[in-house]
Design brief:
- The protein contains six helices and eight strands, in the order αβαβββαβαββαβα.
- α2 crosses α6.
- The protein is globular.
- The strands form two sheets. Strands 1, 2, 3, 4, 5 and 6 form a six-stranded mixed beta sheet that branches. Strands 7-8 form a two-stranded antiparallel ribbon.
- α4 links the parallel β5 and β6.
- Helices cover 44% and strands 20% of the residues.
- The protein has one domain: Rossmann fold.
- Bound molecules: flavin mononucleotide (FMN).
- The site of flavin mononucleotide (FMN) has 20 residues, from α2, β3, β5 and β7.
Length: 194
């Protein structure tokens, strides 16, 4: 921020900035519920965040939605949904580490698993479900056989680092296949299974 702009904010403005820096990266304010639901997602560019918020909406807006980077304390929740995006065939390394480190208390609370990936913009097959859900999210968390869904995601060139952006643009460019209706439906399915 330029010095002139900072000075222009005055004391109140600086106070507001300080408060902002303490706030969560994402705070979704759902409806209150006696059922304690949370969505924890790992994302690079936001697709898994959007899917997570829409899944919560499908649940009726009763799940808090957290970015793994916020390092939330999820022990107070009874029902937890885990999601991650895919790069180079793998979930985000940080979610793998988190699931392995916390599996002992987390595994019995997991009610759903989801993945967001590009999959060459082709429909999701049972092999893809196995590769990303069974062999990664479920294996790392030791979760039971809970409902899961693999969503087709999106790529936004402006959010990528320059070398990756150039590679993307040379290979067909941006796409957006993430559907809110699919996320809502998955949220509704989770509620029925809980
Ligand atoms: C550098 C890079 C690597 C990717 N690798 C894969 C991959 O191996 N398999 C796949 O299905 N999708 C892959 N994708 C597509 C992403 O999974 C998809 O864009 C997803 O929506 C990204 O989620 P995010 O916005 O939450 O980060 C890749 C995307 C990028 C930018």
């Amino acid at each position: 921020m330029e010095r002139r702009t900072l000075l222009g904010l005055g004391i109140a403005g600086i106070g507001a900035l300080a408060l902002t820096s303490q706030a969560s990266a994402l705070q979704y304010y759902p409806k209150s519920s006696d059922k304690k639901w949370a969505v924890l997602f790992a994302t690079w560019c936001g697709s898994s965040r959007d899917a997570g918020v829409w899944i919560s909406e499908g649940l009726g807006g009763i799940a808090d939605v957290y970015d793994l980077r916020e390092n939330p304390d999820l022990k107070k929740f009874d029902n937890i949904i885990i999601g991650s995006s895919i790069r180079s065939g793998k979930v985000k390394p940080e979610i793998k580490q988190y699931l392995e480190a916390n599996a002992s208390w987390l595994k019995d609370k997991i009610r759903g698993l989801y993945i967001v990936c590009g999959n060459g913009q082709k429909p999701i097959t049972p092999e893809i479900e196995k590769k990303y859900v069974t062999d990664q999210l479920q294996a790392y968390s030791s979760a039971k056989d809970v409902p899961s869904h693999v969503f087709l995601g999106r790529v936004t060139a402006a959010l990528l680092d320059p070398p990756i952006r150039e590679a993307l643009l040379s290979r067909g460019g941006e796409y957006d296949n993430l559907k809110r209706s699919e996320s809502l439906a998955f949220g509704q399915e989770l509620l029925k299974h809980a």
